[in-house]
Amino acid sequence: MTKIKVIIADDHNLFINGLNLLLKEEPWIEVIDIANDGKELLTILTKTIPDLILLDINMPVLNGLDAAKYIKQTHSSVKLIILSTYNEDHLVDKAKQAGVNGYLLKNSSKEDLLQTIRLVMNNQSAFPYLEPKKENTFDKEDGFLKQFNLTKREMEIIQLLKKGQTNQQVADQLFLSIYTVETHRKNIMQKLGLKTPSALVKFIIEKNL
Amino acid sequence: MIYRIIMELTNNIVKHSHATEATIQIIYHEKQMTLMVEDNGKGITQETLPGIGLKNVVARVHFLNGTLNVDSGNKGTTLMIQIPFKENQ
What we know:
The structure holds two protein chains of two kinds. Chain A is an alpha/beta fold. Helices cover 51% and strands 13% of the residues of chain A. Chain A has a five-stranded parallel sheet, sandwiched between helices. In chain A, helix 1 (13-24) links the parallel strand 1 (4-9) and strand 2 (29-35). The longest helix of chain A is centred in the last third of the chain and has 15 residues, at 178-192. Chain A is elongated and about 70 Å long. By secondary structure, chain B is an alpha+beta fold. Chain B has a single domain, classed as Histidine kinase-like ATPase, C-terminal domain (Heat Shock Protein 90), CATH 3.30.565.10. Chain B has two helices and four strands, in the order αββαββ. Chain B has helices spanning 2-17, 52-63; strands at residues 22-28, 32-39, 67-73, 76-84. In chain B, helix 1 runs antiparallel to helix 2 (52-63). The chains are: A alpha/beta, B alpha+beta.
């Protein structure tokens, strides 16, 4: 039986070591290299091509999602499994968009990991179960809404501001007065702890709301 | 006092607006608090405009040195009440 060649990319050494030990027990898996960030991973890929990469999202220099997008373009045969701490719908969605084959939480069991690897190597995908979205849009709260306590309307306004619209354009589109939009904007800034309009724009772009 | 204002405004939404969604929030700013009451109802129309309840709200807001703004149309109503904190607090 040919072994599955695996590269682990994560910036936490203890995690890598643990994962390495765990996978060593499996005769059908061989960890051929490790990378501490996305860029290092891409450098390794210029020399060796693995069958599978176990990829962390939060890494310095180049994060896992961006690395995944790049790898899927350049090495489409390589399978990717994201190992992440975050069980958040929008991250799972982004991972899917990036073309990864699986998404596993770091608190999963060894069995879960091996099962996911088996599935992915059999050309299947493995993602966490997501609660089906309810019809009522009021319940559609993603991580950001919860984290900063933003309302649906405030998110709508953020989306329009992101497109570069002025307060007046936002007001026209949402059938509100400009004063209302300005008040919403002040409230959003207060909730996000931002002081200036430019800080708000920066925040929206950085967090990709 | 603020509780009474919220009660009245909530009551209005339930009784008159025919809204399916409403949001009520209080946001603390540095020098003032903002009470936002939003709904997606039919808006404040001519026949509902001079309600006693809303007049009471206006009176209470004025008593607190606050300002009240109403933004109402057939897509819904947003009421914004700004109440300044007392200087020595």
